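Figure S7 source data.
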Amino acid sequence: MRKYEYRGVIFDLDGVLTDTAHYHYLAWKKLAESVGASFDEAFNEQLKGVDRMGSLNLILAASGKDFSATDKLTLADEKNLHYQSLIAQLSPADLLPGAAESLQQIRAAGLKTALASVSKNAQAVIERLGIAEQFDVVVDAAKIKNSKPDPEIFLTAAAGLGLTADECFGVEDSIAGIRAIKAARMFALGIGSPAVLTEADVVIAGLHHFSLQDYLK
Ligand code: B16
Ligand code: MG
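Tokens for the predicted 1,6-di-O-phosphono-beta-D-glucopyranose complex:
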């Protein structure tokens, strides 16, 4: 399918390995309603993969009201506390179908694995899911300056693995994340709907459809 043999796979977290994307949605929806901004699944697609303050700014812009910098920090904290309460009970049972098997398949084949999540909660989430040891490198909000769709997070992950962009492919469920992977000049495997992830190279419904052989030929 492509001319490179891959040596590393870089995974997004929310919506790919676990359904925390749904918890982000619930927490943002509650916040949006509290400030009088309309919020639905379509609007939420724009927030996926976007960092906390970036997401908040999009919601507040939709409310048509002005908020001070202090108000914004308070609102971001409120959303995060709500989100953290929703993920408090995460366990390995919350891995999406095929997630654990995909990681095992990739590592058994001798490829390296990295996590690329702009979430400040990413480390806590992978620990609760019991997969923290499955990554050679974890790149989260603390290690990057620019949120997806900037390629920085995927390029930082590849560099952390000691690989070039050509040697890696990225796995993402968000429009911003697919754009980040393509901006990093990597092959982009989308998780979700081809109608939404139009810029991905290939889209599968979930990791239960993942087979490494499809990407190594
Ligand atoms: P936090 P990902 C992203 O994680 C989510 O997709 C996005 O919806 C969320 O706003 C962002 O993390 C920040 O999360 O508020 O926990 O720092 O998709 O890059 O794994
Ligand atoms: Mg995601």
